[in-house]
Design goal:
Domain HTH arsR-type (chains A, B): 3-97
Strand content of chain A: 5-15%
Structural class of chain A: alpha+beta
Keywords (chains A, B): DNA-binding, Transcription, Transcription regulation
Organism (chains A, B): uncultured spirochete
Protein name (chains A, B): Regulatory protein ArsR
Order of helices and strands of chain A: HHEHHEEH
Largest interface: A-B, 36 and 35 residues
Helix content of chain A: over 70%
CATH topology of chain A: Arc Repressor Mutant, subunit A
Strand order of the largest sheet of chain A: 1-3-2
Pfam families (chains A, B): HTH_5
Oligomer: homodimer
CATH architecture of chain A: Orthogonal Bundle
Chain lengths: 104, 104
DNA sequence: GCCATTGTTGCAATAATATGCAACATTTCA
DNA sequence: TGAAATGTTGCATATTATTGCAACAATGGC
């Protein structure tokens, strides 16, 4: 049971990493190409410390990985399927909501 | 841009609902069959108020729906694909982590 | 070595979540 | 109507997340 619990905690960690609008935007940016902290911070108009922390959170969850290149650190998406998964889930739910509304 | 923001917020809401180990267990229980609050609370060994609140959160996210049947309220999973999505994401990440370890 | 660029971490203030108990609401049935 | 069973909501407390700034760390070029 303890092992099962850990399994669900790991899984919840992945969803926690995805449970923030800005982090989702960051992941979509990373789906196009690798980005360094600085450029991504400029692109999104937020402080680099926030971008750095969020990237580190996404990395802990296993969603992205990084490579240092000189003074900058390049981050890239590990599993692009994650985002397809996100939009698929969203579409299913949207359809369901429409269905419920039309039934009322 | 405002509309795009709302889109990401909606998506983040779905992931927020999934970002808790107990709620993930609840969803898996619901994948088998519909459950009422009371039975699910017994099964999981937590207070019914927590189960009720979590179910309501999952419902707001569009993941489940409910029907009152006498004194009890039956909840059921709307999109079982959501859970497949979870295990798919997890597997991809696990594979990636193994790959990284073997490279070191 | 020194400086510029880039990235990370620590801290503090604020906001959001989790948790459990108790009160209240809804439905059924006698 | 009143009691029993089931669900929901309000409140209080503890934990966690968000955010921005400033300090610190790492790398490369002069």
């Amino acid at each position: 049971m303890k092992q099962l619990e850990r399994r669900y905690e790991r899984r919840a960690e992945i969803f926690k990493a995805l449970a923030n609008p800005l982090r989702l935007v960051m992941l979509e940016k990373l789906a196009d190409k690798p980005w360094c902290v600085c450029a991504l911070a400029d692109e999104l108009g937020v402080d680099k410390s926030i971008v750095s922390k969020y990237l580190s959170q996404l990395k802990s969850a296993g969603l992205i990985e990084d490579t240092r290149k000189g003074t900058l650190v390049e981050y890239r998406l590990v599993a692009p399927c994650i985002l397809q998964v996100a939009s698929c889930a969203e579409e299913t739910i949207q359809e369901q909501k429409k269905k419920l509304l039309s039934e009322e």
